[in-house]
Q: What sequence folds into this?
């Protein structure tokens, strides 16, 4: 049973405005900001930034280990909070650049809008040229464009990526796990790519290019799963055989030709993934249940980090709130808030 906490309290109208402020905290009393760029600049190593559900515009460089936590990305689970949405001031500039000292930081529960111009997606998050960010977490976020750069010993899990990505773990393996990729040409170097879903909108465009990587327990599109592979271990994926390698594999080395609209409980097109209306559970009679190399399901509901429906971040989540339309005789405004504790 989910743990629900109900808070009823009186606060002044002045204090009510705090719910729209960014709280920056590191074990002491929080500091509050209205502007996300100012909150990032004012934070120090180890700080956590709790970012309310509203729209922000940033083009910032993060060069310290900080943790950005939004309210979540699914509109059905953020009705009480709103979605933390981050846009760029220019569609050709990334919202965030990670510098060489951003090691150990994280980004969770944030919706990044699309950066797209003249037929090309531009990064939402990129690693600074010459830098290699390590021990970084990107979790339960939506990327209208993509993420690119060198991430070593990092964890990229339970995200939705609208356009192609480039993950290069130059100095150590990174785990790319339980994500939904909605475009072609995703490049992985020195990574473990496990329990993801790859959706490609046009035939003969590859889902994956990879080097020195383990690719297992993924659901791939029929006939155009890979373009180029170099020194990769391929096993227990839907729509490709174990052990395939080499370049231009689009039309060969397949042990399945499963139509992805039949693989999942409910899915008809990429737009279902983008608007989060698809049901990517495997049907009860699916041959891919318990078909992974670890004995668990293939796809995002198997593996080490099974997909969390609703994509709610790990911190306590406001599921409902009732704000009185009038103040009481003391000038206070009655508010009732229901908070749901999260297990992960």
A:
């Amino acid at each position: 049973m989910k743990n629900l906490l109900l808070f009823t309290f009186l606060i002044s109208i002045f204090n009510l405005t705090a719910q729209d402020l960014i709280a920056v905290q590191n074990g002491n009393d929080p500091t509050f900001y209205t502007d996300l760029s100012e909150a990032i600049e004012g934070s120090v190593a180890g700080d956590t930034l709790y970012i309310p559900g509203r729209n922000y515009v940033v083009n910032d460089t993060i060069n310290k280990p900080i943790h950005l936590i939004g309210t979540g990305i699914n509109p059905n689970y953020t009705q009480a909070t709103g979605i933390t949405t981050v846009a760029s001031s220019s569609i050709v500039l990334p919202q965030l650049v990670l510098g060489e000292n951003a090691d150990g930081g994280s980004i969770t529960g944030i919706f990044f809008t699309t950066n797209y111009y003249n037929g090309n997606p531009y990064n939402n998050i990129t690693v600074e040229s010459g830098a290699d960010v390590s021990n970084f977490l990107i979790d339960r976020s939506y990327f209208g464009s993509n993420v690119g750069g060198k991430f070593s010993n990092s964890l990229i899990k339970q995200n939705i990526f609208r356009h192609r990505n480039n993950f290069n773990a130059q100095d150590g393996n990174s785990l790319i796990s339980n994500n939904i990729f909605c475009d072609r040409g995703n490049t992985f170097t020195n990574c473990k790519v496990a329990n993801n879903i790859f959706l490609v909108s046009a035939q003969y465009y590859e889902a994956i290019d990879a080097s020195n990587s383990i690719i297992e327990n993924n659901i791939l599109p029929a006939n155009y799963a890979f373009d180029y592979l170099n020194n990769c271990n391929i096993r227990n994926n839907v729509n490709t055989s174990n052990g395939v390698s080499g370049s231009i594999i689009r039309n060969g080395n397949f042990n399945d030709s499963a139509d992805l609209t039949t693989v999942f409980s409910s899915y008809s097109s990429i737009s279902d993934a983008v608007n989060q209306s698809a049901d990517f559970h495997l049907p009860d009679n699916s041959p891919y249940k318990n078909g992974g190399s670890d004995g668990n399901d293939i796809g995002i509901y198997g593996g080490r980090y099974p997909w969390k429906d609703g994509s709610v971040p790990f911190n306590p989540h406001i599921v409902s709130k009732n704000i009185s339309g009038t103040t009481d005789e003391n000038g206070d405004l009655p508010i009732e808030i229901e908070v749901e504790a999260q297990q992960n």
